[in-house]
Amino acid sequence: ANKVIVPSQYLANWVVKWGVPTEKIAVIYNAVEIPDKVEPLSIPLKTPVKAVTVGRLVPWKQVDGLIEALREIPELGLVVVGDGPERPRLERIAQELGVSGRVYFAGQRSKRETLSLMAACDLFVLNSTYEGLPHTVLEAIALGLPVIATSVGGTPEVVQDGETGLLVPLNGELTGTLKRVVNDYHLRQVLSQRARHWVCQNLSAEQMVKQTETVLLDTMRKRSDR
Hints:
Elements: E1 4-6, H1 9-17, E2 25-27, E3 49-54, H2 63-69, E4 76-81, H3 87-96, E5 103-107, H4 111-119, E6 123-126, H5 135-142, E7 147-150, E8 166-168, H6 174-183, H7 185-202, H8 205-224
Parallel strand pairs: 1-2, 3-4, 3-6, 4-5, 6-7, 7-8
């Protein structure tokens, strides 16, 4: 390849390890655009604060850690959007911990339904052990949801701790961070406003197209100069 485009510096570092020269790699972040007038869907949870997580239900998403955190935060409910092999175990954990009434397994949904479920919540949580560049985080930010995420992969490139969201070290104090955000409405508002502004400034489709066009034209120019 004359050029390899990747959506995060984290993935760029992996491509270098594969043997691709650094000068052949370009980082262009994925754009995120939310449809106008996303209508929140009704959620069967009575808790005053609702968190949402989105993704395939597999071990490295660590949704079990989110469910366990609910034991210490009675005012918090959790919406789980997605399906996968972990779902029966996660449902069993919620039952065993006595929090099944505060967990809504929404299953696999369309893109629009997923956005509507996210829009009905107060914050977004991602507890993964690995992420290249999580698009669901970008969507959550664009919807104005404060984000709590593990500091792994490309996530810290879009979630600046204390600015556009809150980062938790892998296997760090997730429960304490959740409590802080749940109990501080002003913090949720500040993080939401900063994050949405950052997305508008840095992750528009127009900007992504322009950056890609620049890479392609530059590559063609260098080939013609040989």
